[in-house]
Amino acid sequence: MLGLMQNHPLLISSLIDFAARHHGDGQIVSRRVEGDIHRYTWKDVQQRAKQVANALNAEGLNAGDRVGTLAWNGYRHLELYYGVSGSERVLHTINPRLLPDQIAWIANHAEDQILCFDMTFLPIIQAIHAHCKTVKKWVALCDADKLPQDTGIPNLVSYEDWIGAQSANYSWPVFDENTASSLCYTSGTTGNPKGALYSHRSTVLHAFAAVLPDAMGLSASDSALPVVPMFHVNAWGMPYSAAMVGAKLVMPGPAMDGKSIYELMESEKVTFAAGVPTVWQMLLNYVGQNNLKFSSLKRTVIGGSACPPAMITAFREKYGVDVLHAWGMTEMSPLGTLCTLKEKHKSLSEAERNAIRMKQGRAIYGVDLKIVGADGTEQPWDGATYGDLYVTGPWILASYFKNEGGDPLEDGWFPTGDVATIDADGFMQITDRSKDVIKSGGEWISSIDVENTAMGHPAVAMAACIGMPHPKWDERPIVAVALKPGAEVSREELLKFFEGKMAKWQIPDDVVFVDSIPIGATGKMLKTKLREQLRDYKLPTL
Ligand code: AMP
Description:
One of its GO terms (biological process) is fatty acid metabolic process. With 542 residues, this protein is of the alpha/beta class. Helices cover 28% and strands 24% of the residues.
């Protein structure tokens, strides 16, 4: 027997229609590539997204055709999010920090028909346009008078000209909620990147989960700043979840330095922000150096790579900002776990509560987790036993775009490539990417633990721990360290700093000082590159 309730497919267009109708005057604030601030409302987003849809019709794009973007967080990108997906095409966000060859490879693999780009990336487009075989129109996200004449790019139009010729009179089509909505390629640190193809259903369900109180807890009373880019996993879904609850949305454009982010937070009374640790480190450095405080910021979600405990403590204790440590991946839309405490934790001491906050957190409804040992059996949730982390749920990838790499699932579970523990309360803690695990004398050493400890030293800006071959122990850890500007610490002092904080055999054998730790296109440390840089390195203990 079927239920007797209305059957509305979960479509992305319903989010923008809801925001326009119920939060029509809710503000959208963007820092533009030109540097100025642009303001308008959710109602305006809806109207201009409909102009985008009409422009795509005028180009003759079919349902399912891909429209690429190479763009910062900003209002025009937001309009494309809704106009492209809402009209049943697929929004393909591309990471502009990749090499031009990789960008061309991805655009060709996705068979993008139109590619929209911020003017910052004009040189990239000039370098690759001739190699992008399927792109028939290039759209520069700028005013008509900002488009240079002699770019050498055929079929180039300014966004404002392109949508300006269209009316906002458009009815969103209604279709199966499992239809593809957007596409994001993984970082591809090994081999070619692979596409995660999200659906309307997965995106809307993910937005529902993201706004729950134990997740991001977003509401209409928030001023929300996604510093996480809209070109990588849809800025953790914030363009959708902000519309779902009618939050004010503040977008930083290209200005990601500590000063610009801080000033935007203050001027727009931002209450909630989301970002990766590397960006927050720049913000904390700026705020610390200038003796500033946050006047409106209440909480921030930090994820994408392990958030150093020192960062969580600085935000909480120095600035009164609650940090939610979160974990996820491109293949998971991306949210999997967030670290919010349970009622039973109220009676714990602050130190005990802090120890929990350092973990990557609990699964949100919709996501299930398990850890699996080398023998293939599920491991206990005791907070100590490590295992390969597997996930399953309705916003988790079932197979890659064009079925690249075959069926990734094992018994319906997606292998994350992370190694983790889960405690009795369901709090998961990542110890490593499986390829970064350091095995010393048959025991695993968590590179994240080593890095977190090193980052607790006031002179250290960034630390990366890797294993080095050792004839007796197989591998021993060393830590590469980049110091804060003007800060000093010796190798011996830093090694001493580890004492009492980690077991003796887990303490790295050496400290290597570097100018900077190599960072990849999504703000994560590139350990492959660091290993290359330290190719000729020899352990001092040998
Ligand atoms: P990506 O798909 O590029 O977003 O990368 C996903 C990977 O980033 C995960 O599989 C983890 O290895 C890593 N990651 C994400 N969030 C965290 C976190 N909070 N702590 C540690 N690693 C993380």
